[in-house]
Amino acid sequence: MASNLLVLFFRDHPVLVSKQMINDSPIDKCLHTETPVPFMEDILSTLRHQLGNSVNALKVTLDVLHENFDLFNDEKKREYLERAQEVLARQQAMVDAMRSYSSVNVNDQKPVDFLSFWEQFLATLRQRTEKVILIQNLPAGPHHVMGSPIAIQNVLMQLVENALDAVEGIEDPRIELSVSDEAERLRIGVRDNGCGIKQKDMSKIFVPLFTTKPKRKGLGLSIALKLMAQMGGRLEITPLAEGGTAATIWLQRVDGENHGQAVHQ
Question: Last residue of a domain, which of 42, 70, 103?
Fold first, then answer.
């Protein structure tokens, strides 16, 4: 096991961390000259929080074991070693989450018949929940967007899942799913009357690993933003003054009959 660990110093104390956690970290990929400084600060703050909690827990566990090694019986020693392994497992889970973020990409973009996609998406959504109210304002006629059906569905399902989380426990929950045509883009909105997003968290919602849900990995919105950027679209999250949140994506419209040429009106 020792060969897979490194000794680093945290606040002047030696601690053990996984070599793989260091080798697989995508920090170097996130920090480049085009990254806005405030966003970099949020990324580092989130990683510092996640790593700090884990490293501190590991340090305390190993400190207690070291100071009482001669006093503890074998069962007690095993207990503390298992605690250390649990912390390392959480670190490994963080590495796996980072790897998941890095591996998700839009690999096959093409003009998508939106109405056909939309029908299939709504059928999938109805199997998941019946709480969503549909507001559709699309003019008659074909509508094509550039992207990947799988990627678009993943983005939309993530936004709906966030809305479902937000309205949990609300007396009169409401989730609205809207679609409309906006010149060169097609707009899809997911609006809820849930708990909303705290102002102090708004700058961090797209940061990988940031979450306010203990059992979540904090990758949903960051992956959704990445997919939308790769498809030439946009994603915005807006807290509502009356409470709740509005999530909106814009997909690039294309002329389906002319090899996916973008529409300019």
Answer: 103
